[in-house]
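Anyone up for a design puzzle?
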């Protein structure tokens, strides 16, 4: 008999991470020492590349 190995996914502990608010509905979590502005910028660039949002140009 062949047994399929179960995939065990352990969620990261968000109490040990820093919350970054993107907009009213979107929050991401990064490591404590990371730059929140850089994380926000990278998130918005990734979503714009996928075509999900448009970034207003200055």
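Challenge accepted. My sequence:
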């Amino acid at each position: 008999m062949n047994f399929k190995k179960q995939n065990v996914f352990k969620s990261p502990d968000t109490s040990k991470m820093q919350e970054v608010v993107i907009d009213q509905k979107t929050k991401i979590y990064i490591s404590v020492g990371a730059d929140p502005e850089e994380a926000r910028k990278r998130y918005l660039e990734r979503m714009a590349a996928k075509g999900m949002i448009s970034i207003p140009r200055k």
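A detail worth pointing out: The chain has one helix and two strands.
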